[in-house]
Amino acid sequence: MKSHKVEPRTLTGFMELLPDKQILFNQMKETIQKSYEKFGFLPLNTPIVEIADVLLAKAGGETEKQIYRFNKGAHELALRFDLTVPLAKYVAAHYGQLSFPFKRYQIGKVYRGERPQKGRFREFYQCDIDIIGDTELNCLYDAELPNVIYSTFLELGFSNFKIHINNRKILNGLFSSLTLSEQASNIMRIIDKIAKIGEEKVIEELSELDIPNDSISTIMKFISISGDNNEIINSLNKIGINDSLFIEGITELENVINCVRSFGIPENNFVIDLTIARGLDYYTGTVYETFLDDYPDIGSVCSGGRYDNLAEYYTDKKLPGVGISIGLTRLFYKLNELNAINFDKKSISDVLVISDSDNIIPCLPIATALRNANINTEIYMENKKINAKFKYADKLSIPFVVVVGRNEIETNTVSLKNMNTREQVQVDISEAINIIKS
Amino acid sequence: MKSHKVEPRTLTGFMELLPDKQILFNQMKETIQKSYEKFGFLPLNTPIVEIADVLLAKAGGETEKQIYRFNKGAHELALRFDLTVPLAKYVAAHYGQLSFPFKRYQIGKVYRGERPQKGRFREFYQCDIDIIGDTELNCLYDAELPNVIYSTFLELGFSNFKIHINNRKILNGLFSSLTLSEQASNIMRIIDKIAKIGEEKVIEELSELDIPNDSISTIMKFISISGDNNEIINSLNKIGINDSLFIEGITELENVINCVRSFGIPENNFVIDLTIARGLDYYTGTVYETFLDDYPDIGSVCSGGRYDNLAEYYTDKKLPGVGISIGLTRLFYKLNELNAINFDKKSISDVLVISDSDNIIPCLPIATALRNANINTEIYMENKKINAKFKYADKLSIPFVVVVGRNEIETNTVSLKNMNTREQVQVDISEAINIIKS
């Protein structure tokens, strides 16, 4: 009887990797996790499914349209679309049982029903860290996050990257001093195009917004500030904008930059960038974006910033915080496409144990000895020709094969083949362990 | 303006842990992952959301009622309810790109809308491993899984546990030889109650099924087989049931037991148990269940077995396999309730760096030095009294505090306090690193 088969397909926008790529993905994920833990962030693992009205307390607009929501039992449910809202819910719900500043990381899948498009995912990993204060949070914590970013990307095998740092109070103070706060987002949009359209066209477009000429001239003076990090701070101090928010922003930025230096981050890995704004409504102080110098097309690989109040939709407690996020699924996809993932480890198994006959039993205690020495060990148990067994090791990129045959059993040895050099030696098991481990 | 607040609540049946418990949970999860990798299983990470008709190709009955399903875009979608169906889909879809035997692990969340009940979860982690053969799979692989179970529970800190092993062919052969195959599940249900209701009542209930007396007598003889593993095999060989499936089952069981011994698993960690059947329709050969001797009420903590054909709903290829699963969320919940999780690591940070004044800057390079030595390091940056800083370390169970003050800066040292012994020493940073690491 031949029955009807269902086509085994996977949804568009849902990443499903072959094992060799999954090994690389997991190494990236675990590297990020270890790096976050090195800075003392606590692990969280909130549910993927939440009550819709809890998850959507704040949402609206584009985000709300992308939500996966459905009914089951007594509730309307939704899949989380980021890790920030579940954090806000968590901190509000467990406030009394947490120690503040509360530093947590969460690495997990989130869901957004975006239009499917190459390199866009509907299920993707976010790797978030946040530091939440109770009522207040020292500005020095803002300097710790660039340190985490630096450390993490170094561990991921990159050294040419730049963390762009700004403070939203500087932009907000600038526009407020010019009584242009309401037009801030329009102005920022025009400024953003300067590399493309040039200075004159920017001035022209700003004039079209009925901005007075002296204000335009202040804006142009502001965005033309350049130089190294110290020179930028100097220019900001000398620009003559007498706004308390603006001055507060400069002070915070200077503090953050000084602390970043004290942490020992090289000067060429961070830069003050007065043009980055990041989510105009959400961030209120320090903001970050990170770019890989060798892969500018990827765009920012890690962004975030300081916000005034994490959980205002759930609690009256004031909970200021600062956080960053790495969009791992997209980053992995892009780096893989560019062949820019460079981990040494290509296989899970360090060694494959095979028999040169159909007698597998003598392989078993050998495998146990290797595993007890903390070596990831696989045994090939099918009755195949010896070449098929070696081919299996090759296909899985397993670096060593241990052959156990009659001769080896009699002499209490194993034959150890290095699959890269194709060299084979006959040694006792403890010597084999040493070679595999070195 | 005081706005309306949404109550920050989490769905019933969805585990959300406080950080101290999450640290323990993650250690269990990572221990299981490392153990699976030590046996060379490849990582998989399939989507949580799948096309409903793909996921439900085989489902029906109770399972189907528990599924979370919903519409979004062009498809009816569903949340996965186990990791076996996604594996079947994956192997069928990527057949040509995989190496067989295909050994994979997957650790991930699955969803079942069960009636909420203490210790029952609707979102829970399964930790699965399976070995899939192409057309056939050597019976020796059945012996590898008890080895993985043994290794994993040892790493989880248990030594008193028993892996119960049986072979479904023995049961199936027994019932077939008595022409009772159709009543097998009813008979098994009665036999299962023997500890509760006693031998006589079992015989009585079997009689009520119109089973002939000599068949009942064979069944009773069969279930009374006892002794050590060798004695059970001997009794089976001598019981005089002349059925080819029955005899094949005994041979396979004997092979598996011999291989398990060759792997070096202690005799008191595995036992032949002729009464375990596990999912009568699914498993076709070796079956396993695992019980913690000290916590019998938890029930089986790891089960699985051999099946004939993984992906028959998706492909004509015959894909026999053998697998096991640990239901981590329930296991963690039960062990935590019994206070039976014994990991040494209670904190993420190994050390908290604090200043004895409001000058935090000198702490920053100290923290970097500690992190560069691979020590998880946190800095307390709020301006609080020094007691509040020590209290923070205590609440998070951080084992060491490094104090940086004027005196330490002048002498290029740090004060290192062991939070368990309350001893404090003033040493240079390299000495502090040595003490923390040892």
Plain-language structure description:
2 copies of one chain form a homodimer. With 438 residues, chain A is an alpha+beta fold. Chain A is 40% helix and 19% strand. Chain A has 17 helices and 16 strands. Chain A has helices spanning 19-38, 52-55, 61-66, 84-94, 141-155, 168-177, 184-192, 194-197, 199-208, 213-223, 229-238, 244-262, 328-337, 363-372, 386-395, 406-411, 429-437; strands at 42-43, 49-51, 69-72, 75-79, 102-111, 123-132, 161-167, 270-272, 286-292, 303-307, 321-327, 351-355, 377-379, 400-404, 414-418, 424-427. In chain A, the strands form 3 sheets. Chain A has an 8-stranded mixed sheet. A 5-stranded mixed sheet of chain A has the order 13-12-14-15-16, sandwiched between helices. Chain A starts with 18 loop residues before the first helix and ends with a helix. The mean pLDDT of chain A is 94. Chains A and B meet through helix 1, strand 1, strand 2, strand 3 and strand 4 of A and helix 1, strand 1, strand 2, strand 3 and strand 4 of B.
SSE inventory with pairings:
The structure is a homodimer of 438-residue chains.
Chain A: H1 19-38, E1 42-43, E2 49-51, H2 52-55, H3 61-66, E3 69-72, E4 75-79, H4 84-94, E5 102-111, E6 123-132, H5 141-155, E7 161-167, H6 168-177, H7 184-192, H8 194-197, H9 199-208, H10 213-223, H11 229-238, H12 244-262, E8 270-272, E9 286-292, E10 303-307, E11 321-327, H13 328-337, E12 351-355, H14 363-372, E13 377-379, H15 386-395, E14 400-404, H16 406-411, E15 414-418, E16 424-427, H17 429-437
Helix pairs in contact in A: 1-5, 5-12, 6-12, 11-12
